[in-house]
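Sequence only, no structure available. Ideas?
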Amino acid sequence: MQPKTDAISAQSKARIVAGFTLLELLVAMAVFAIVSVSVYAALSQMLLSRSVLQGSYSNLADMQRMLVYLERDIAQAVARPAKGPYGDKVSALHLVKGSDLSLTRTGAVTYQAVASSLLRVRFRIADNIVQRAVSAVLDQAQGSGFDERQGLS
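Reply:
I predicted one. Tokens follow.
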């Protein structure tokens, strides 16, 4: 019986050295494909979530920046009324229809001894975006207005 066992063990050794069977290769490839698809789906979802969060963070940063501007402008507000473009009196703190707030504030940097250090600041909500505009001229003439380029939306 001893020679038969040696023949079986020699046969199994030859089988191990020969490599994998076709069925083993197919199972390994199927497992690899399933793992690859799941990793791709997870990576795709992670990239989508990242882009959505990045947009939200950008909006949050814009909102925080706007709140800082609003807080500073209100803290530096002064009781100096202004004149509108048609000579009408506009109060120092003026709210129009809940979407347009204008106020007179101090703190402007002046380079001339005659120039005023007061600014007129306007916050406006348009299309769900808060815009900030500044006018260095308190008493406006026709055609003068706020400098929208300094606005922050």
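The CA atoms of residues 97 and 124 lie 10 Å apart.
Hope that gets you unstuck.
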